[in-house]
Design a protein that fits this description.
By secondary structure, the chain is an all-beta fold. It is built from no helices and 20 strands. The radius of gyration is 29 Å and the shape is elongated.
Length: about 325
C-alpha cells in the first residue's frame, strides 16, 4: 500500500552584521557579514559563506602580515557547548536556536570565541594598497523539535569582533603580537538574528509501503505496520488523518484492488490492539492522531497499524491501495 504525504517546512533566518572604524597603521577593517541563512530545514543544517573585508598598505618595502580574528561568544545570550545561541520568547518562556561560525569550508574548525587560534598570513608589495577578504563559513542548525515561533524573533546581541595583526619586512611574524609592528581594531554590538516558521514537516518511513506480504488464504487476520514522522513548532497543535483510499466501497470501508473485479478489505488503526480506526476528521480530530509541538519527541514517530481481516480470497495477484496523509495545524 502506497502512501502520499504533504510536507511542511521550517523557516528560520539568521543574519549578523559587523562594521568597524578605521584600523591603526598598516591595516583597516572594511566590515563583516551579513550572515543570512534564509530558510532553514528540519532535515539538517543550512550553510552559507560570508566574509570579513579589510585592507592593508605597504611602505617602501614589502611587508609580511599575520592577522587574527576573534568573534566573542559574550553577548545576550552567551554561547554554550552546543554552540552560539539566539534567544527568543513565547508566552513568557525562553527558547533558543543555535548557530556557529567556522574558519574552514568543511566547518570542522569553529571560529574561536577567545584566544587567537584563527589566523592567516599574506604579503603586501611595496608602495601598494591591498584590499582583501577572508571567508567566514557559517552554519545554522536545524531548530530543535518543539522550538516555537518567537513573539519577537530570536537574536544574539552584543557580540564583539576583534582583529589583531602584526607585520615585518623580513618574513612573517610567528603570531599576531610578535611585532615589531602591531595593530588591532574591535567592533562591538554585532547581532545574529533568526526566526522559526509557523509550519510543520512530515515524512514517511523508508520504505513507506504498508506491506501485508503474501498468502494463499485469509483464514486468519494478517497484521502489518509502517510509520509517519513529523516535526512542528512548539506553539502549534496538529491533527494527522488518513483518508479512505482509492477503492472504498462506502465511507469508512477501505479496500485494496486486485485483478478485476476482485478486492480485499483492510483497515488502518491508531492503536496496536487495532480497535481505534484511523480516519480523516482533521477538522474535529475525532478519529485522527492529535498532538502538539511542545510535547513531541525528536521527531514524533507515529505508527500506522494495518490489518487484513478474515475473508474469502479472490483471484491470485497483487492487491494495492493508495492513502493520502493529511497534516492539519
Amino acid at each position: 500500500m502506497n502512501f502520499k504525504h504533504i510536507l511542511g517546512a521550517w523557516v528560520m533566518a539568521l543574519a549578523a552584521c559587523v562594521s568597524a572604524p578605521a584600523a591603526a597603521q598598516g591595516c583597516s577593517n572594511n566590515g563583516f557579514g551579513p550572515f543570512n541563512f534564509g530558510t532553514l530545514q528540519n532535515s539538517g543544517p543550512t550553510d552559507i559563506t560570508s566574509s570579513f573585508a579589510y585592507g592593508c598598505w605597504g611602505g617602501s618595502s614589502t611587508i609580511y602580515v599575520r592577522m587574527c580574528l576573534v568573534i566573542s561568544a559574550q553577548g545576550t545570550p552567551t554561547a554554550t557547548a552546543a554552540g552560539r545561541r539566539m534567544l527568543g520568547w513565547r508566552s513568557g518562556n525562553q527558547y533558543y536556536t543555535f548557530y556557529d561560525l567556522f574558519s574552514d569550508p568543511a566547518r570542522t574548525q569553529k571560529l574561536p570565541t577567545a584566544g587567537r587560534d584563527f589566523n592567516w598570513q599574506f604579503e603586501v608589495p611595496a608602495n601598494s594598497s591591498l584590499p582583501r577578504t577572508q571567508p567566514i563559513y557559517a552554519r545554522a542548525y536545524a531548530p530543535a523539535p518543539g522550538t516555537p515561533v518567537s513573539e519577537s524573533g530570536y537574536e544574539n546581541s552584543g557580540l564583539a569582533a576583534t582583529v589583531q595583526f602584526s607585520w615585518r619586512t623580513g618574513g612573517y611574524p610567528p603570531n599576531c603580537q610578535a611585532g615589531p609592528n602591531n595593530g588591532s581594531f574591535t567592533q562591538s554590538g554585532a547581532m545574529a538574528t533568526s526566526q522559526v516558521s509557523n509550519a510543520c514537516q512530515i515524512s514517511m518511513s523508508a520504505p513507506a509501503d504498508l506491506d501485508f506480504g503474501s498468502t494463499s488464504t485469509l483464514g486468519s487476520t494478517i497484521d502489518s505496520t509502517t510509520t509517519i514522522s513529523l516535526q512542528c513548532p512548539g506553539n502549534l497543535s496538529w491533527r494527522l488523518g488518513l483518508n479512505d483510499g482509492l477503492h472504498a466501497v462506502v465511507a469508512g470501508q477501505r479496500r485494496m484492488a486486485g485483478p478485476a473485479p476482485d478486492y480485499l478489505a483492510y483497515e488502518l488503526y491508531r492503536d496496536p490492539s487495532r480497535t481505534q480506526r484511523w480516519g480523516n476528521d482533521t477538522a474535529g480530530g475525532t478519529n485522527t492522531v492529535n498532538g502538539s509541538g511542545s510535547t513531541q519527541t525528536n521527531p514524533t514517530v507515529l505508527t500506522v497499524y494495518g490489518r487484513v481481516p478474515v475473508q474469502a480470497v479472490g483471484a491470485p495477484g497483487t492487491y494495492t491501495d493508495t492513502i493520502t496523509v493529511t497534516l492539519s495545524y
